Amino acid sequence: MSEEAGEDAQRKAAEREAKKAEVRKRLEEAGNKKKAKKGFLTPERKKKLRKLLMVKAAEDLKRQQLLKEQERHKALADRTIPLPNVDSIDDKGQLEKIYGDLWSRLTQLEEEKYDINQIVSQTEAEINALTIEVNDLRGKFVKPSLKKVSKYDNKFKQSGEKKAGGKEDFRANLKIVKKDVMESITNVKKKDDKPDWSKKNKEAKAEEAAPAAAAPEPVAEPEAAEPEVEEEEGEEEEEE
């Protein structure tokens, strides 16, 4: 009996230890999972949140467009006057009254437009001045908008200004190259381009021409003496 009781106690102690080990393992796995998440926003939650924000922004944009359209229609309804049927009116005084009302309304709207434009331009100038001051305090500066000008535009402009004084010579700005230098360069290039066999032929021709030039030329006999004798005989016959 004592042995069976000891075995039961050992078995229960082993089961208890196994359960503790299993619970410890589960707790460790849960802790590791929490560490792996690294925050509340998981990728799936981020995706859903982004989608909701896009839908909300689209709805807000549509609502703003609808409000602006309603305000525009309301402003047009307040500023415009319903035109009467002028074709059915024959009274000149009534027509002049309608004309006067429309003209006064037009002048009033033009005055309001001018005042609004002045306020807008003044406000924009103040905003620009304040922006420049803020940038100066921060140590920044606004880059001015530069206009890109082509070099050809400047050249044509200068040529147009000179045309008033006289004829423009576009070759005056070109570089001057001496003719002798150009000829020497071209001759050197031509000599370098000739093949070796052409040089050998020239040397052979020069050697053949040298002995021919050294040989003495035959002296031609005078043939003009005979006609002189005949002329003398003719003169003697005439004298006789």
Automatic annotation (TrEMBL):
Cited InterPro entries: Troponin, Troponin_I, Troponin_sf
Coiled-coil intervals, chain numbering: 106-140
Sequence similarity: Belongs to the troponin I family.
Name of the protein in its database record: Troponin I
Source organism phylogeny: Eukaryota, Metazoa, Ecdysozoa, Nematoda, Chromadorea
Biased composition (Basic and acidic residues): 8-32, 189-208
Keywords, sorted A to Z: Actin-binding, Coiled coil, Muscle protein
A cellular component annotation (GO) from this entry: troponin complex
